[in-house]
Amino acid sequence: MFPWLFPYGLGGIGSESHKGKISSMTHKGHLLMYHDKRFQRDPHFPLVAFNHEQIKEGATGGYLLAEKQSFPVIADRLLNLNSDALSDIAKRMSNGERLKPQTPEEKACFQVIHDLDHVGRHVQGSITNKKYMRNEIWSLISFMGAPSWFITFSLAENRHPICLCFADTQERFSPTVHAPDECYQLIANNPVAGARFFILWLRLSLNMF
Prior knowledge:
Layout: H1 24-32, H2 38-41, H3 45-65, H4 71-79, H5 83-94, H6 104-120, H7 127-144, H8 161-167, H9 180-189, H10 191-206
Helix pairs in contact: 3-6, 8-10
């Protein structure tokens, strides 16, 4: 899929040389930290790598949901789903109405939504995953109390020499003064550098307290 990144056909995701040795997530992390930063600067590889992990997590969630004994029930529910009832539910919910299923058709639709939530909770970045994280936050607030203050980080990546070093292709740290346009271009071409710098700054800030 990326012949310009793996010109010899070796070292790709899921290749025979890596099976059973490291996970695909660890492998992708190693590739994104490659010394010449070819994987970081590629406009498609980080997105495809993340989407690949989402697909795997979705397949795992679907496998856990549709176990052998429950598969016929789930399949029958999907095949006999009332599309008109589902459209009506979607329209009413989009208008902000709080629904409680009344008819058997509505109950079946809500059960399908519950099944999708069961699958989506395993997928990082999905709507259901975010919903569970919000529920966890509310639980922590209920247990520990509301936080008394907040910190919002708004970093100027294009002005910090460490972040510019992360974004540049130089393998040695040698701070140089870049033109403003060049700084913006370095950060725009390497989003991994911005993420690495944010994590570094967050860890340094947390160690201050």
